[in-house]
Amino acid sequence: MELTPLTMTPVQMRGHSHLGETQAVESEPVKTFGEFLVDELKKTNELQLESDRLNAALAAGRIEDISQVVVAGQKADIALQLTLQLRNRATSAYQEIMRMQV
């Protein structure tokens, strides 16, 4: 039995107005879920690295405004928590699918 991956397709408006207010919109290239996930993981990693860089600069005495360091740390923490929750939900969904009887 061959399994094909799911793909997300954008929804496009198909109706046309007789008043001419609907215009053809050029479709942007659609990212797959995997590409979207990789991009967001890279952003999370960049936030973590930026937070580490600011922490090191604060420890070295090069930063006078501590709020920059705190904000960067909170952004990195929130991004990491979101990533962990996504992983947990994906794992839970996978386990639920595996428990299904065919």
Protein model, in words:
By secondary structure, the chain is mostly helical. It has two helices and no strands. The protein is flat. The mean pLDDT is 87.
Average pLDDT figure:
87
Helix content: 55-70%
The total of helices stands at 2
Query: Based on helices, strands and strand pairing, what is the structural class?
Result: mainly alpha
Counted beta strands: 0
For the largest beta-sheet, the strand count, sense and barrel status come to:
none
What is the succession of H and E elements? HH
Please mark out the parts with pLDDT under 50 across 5 or more consecutive residues, or reply none: none
Binned strand content: under 5%
Short description:
This protein has 102 residues and is mostly helical. Helices cover 61% and strands 0% of the residues.
